[in-house]
Amino acid sequence: MEETNQNNQTNTSRRNFLKFLGVASVSAVSVNAAQSTDSKQPQYKMASIIDLGLCDGCRDREIPACVEACKAKNTTNFPEPIAEIPYYFPRKVYEDYSKDRANTKRLTPYNWTYVESLKVEDRDIYVPRRCMHCDDPTCQKLCPFGVISKDSNGAVKIDDEYCFGGAKCRDVCPWGIPQRQAGVGIYLKIAPKLAGGGAMYKCDSCADLLAKNQKPACEVQCPKKAIIFGDREEILTKAKALQKAYKGDKEGTYIYGDTQNGGTSTFYVSPVSFEQIQESLNKKHNFTQEQPQKMGIPHMNLAIKNFVSEDSALIKSVLLAPVAGVIAGGIAVAMANRTDKKEGK
């Protein structure tokens, strides 16, 4: 019996070690993978379409149905910070939204989607905003601790249990989507005054539901059927057909998310051009060239390149940083152990 236990422990250790090596290998190889993204067709199964011609912002409701559904579904996933939150060393500041949980007018750690209300050519336009779930996510590529993943369905997920809250993902996201909550996360156990600053949170496309072939909460509760998830190729075909119908002989761009940041799993289509939508955003939020967006309120600029795929030096500097690498290795082993426990191994 003792020998069997030792063998099991050896097998488990070996398995975790191999998983660690796998993570290290992925980190090293991802530089080349990022550079080749544009030449490969994404293999992700799912995508979503958001039809701005159908969305009416749920004007008859206090909170849009998709926003309410998202909050209800993710209540147990929202952060619960400690009472006395430490400052971000050396600055005497921290990001705490725990007393503003009811805010549905922007993205926060407690609100993973919101609806932007705009006026375009005397027409009311409503734009649900959340993570775009990029095909080649800059957040994933540049997370120094390797806690961001993209699953086969296309959902980009942050493992908040091991996230240090350094906010690198938000810095490199073209839309600044991930939001940070201080006073939670692994940094409190390791170096609360020196490392990170909490954990990052965002829409995960209801990945747990997609994995069970179920629909995300926002789609289920949308009364106008303006949000649809489905087979990627079918969704993209539908989006392009709607874009063509909306555009007609007009100038401008009527689909968004198909090429931005190298392509995403979220396709917006609109009866007005996205150039006009961006102009309206600029006016409403006083966006400028120096400040193209605000915290939790993303832009819809059209010219967004995936700079990671064009700058291998940048990705190397993050992924191969010695300190981050050591910590990431430890996190990889811990995550592997957690998976083994869940699988009963």
From TrEMBL:
Location(s), subcellular? Cell envelope
- Per the annotation, which location comes first and is thus the protein's main one? other
Q: Please provide the record's keywords in A-Z order.
A: 4Fe-4S, Iron, Iron-sulfur, Membrane, Metal-binding, Molybdenum, Repeat, Transmembrane, Transmembrane helix
Q: Does the keyword Cell inner membrane apply?
A: no
Q: Give one Pfam family, short name only.
A: Fer4_11
In the UniProt record, which is one GO cellular component term?
A: cell envelope
Q: Which domain of life is it from?
A: Bacteria
Q: Where is the signal peptide?
A: none
Q: Which residues cross the membrane?
A: 314-336
Name one molecular function that GO assigns to this entry. 4 iron, 4 sulfur cluster binding
Residue ranges annotated for the 4Fe-4S ferredoxin-type domain, each copy included? 122-153, 154-183
Keyword Transferase annotated: no
Q: Which InterPro entries match?
A: 4Fe4S_Fe-S-bd, FDH_Electron_Transfer_Unit, TAT_signal, TAT_signal_bac_arc
PANTHER family from the xrefs?
FORMATE DEHYDROGENASE, NITRATE-INDUCIBLE, IRON-SULFUR SUBUNIT (PTHR43545), IRON-SULFUR PROTEIN (PTHR43545:SF4)
Name of the molecule in the record: 4Fe-4S ferredoxin-type domain-containing protein
| Lineage, highest ranks first | Bacteria, Pseudomonadati, Campylobacterota, Epsilonproteobacteria, Campylobacterales
